[in-house]
Amino acid sequence: MSVTETRDIDACHALRRTVFIEEQGVSAEEEVDGLDDTAIHFLAELDGVQVGTARILLKGDTAKIGRVCVLKQARGTRQGQALINACTTWARDNGYARAVLGAQLHALGFYEGLGFTAFGPVYDDAGIDHRDMELLL
Fold it and tell me: How far apart are CA 39 and CA 12, in angstroms?
């Protein structure tokens, strides 16, 4: 199991397409938002196979973690935790004061277990209920 920073945007897109578009029904137009060129990307590998990805968008002192996904067959293997830890470590090491993300409601407990705190109202993002969360770094 490993998570590394990557410039392989095609691999990230392939994973996101499988999880967000095919599995969760998000439209391709909403998933591909034009922000990938300015983001920091991470890939998770398990037994030599790419199984998950996440990205960070930077604004001011905040690292916004997003597009976090793990293939169905790799869930429960701590890949999601490894991705989030890689993102927060990168942000902390590069001088950012906080990490934020928009969590799908079913994943709130997962992120709370990693130290994130929910704030603000529930909102719709691509037809899925989300809530913002933050972690002070």
Answer: 12
Tokens at residue 90, please? 């990168």
Cα-atom radius of gyration of the chain, to the nearest Å?
A: 14
Q: How far apart are CA 98 and CA 135, in angstroms?
A: 6
What CATH number matches the domain at 2-136, 3.40.630.30, 3.40.50.620, 3.40.50.360, 3.90.1150.10? 3.40.630.30
Of 64, 129, 50, the residue nearest 97 (C-alpha) = 64
Q: Give residue-wise pLDDT tens across range 33-50.
A: 999 999 999 999 999 999
Q: What are phi and psi of 106, to 5 degrees?
A: -65, -20
User: According to the model, what pLDDT value does residue 11 have?
Assistant: 97
What is the tens place of the pLDDT at every residue in 102-114?
Answer: 999 999 999 999 9
Secondary structure class of 37 (helix, strand, coil): helix
Q: Which residues pair with 101 in a beta bridge?
A: 65, 133
Half-sphere exposure of residue 89: CA atoms within 13 angstroms, side-chain side: 10
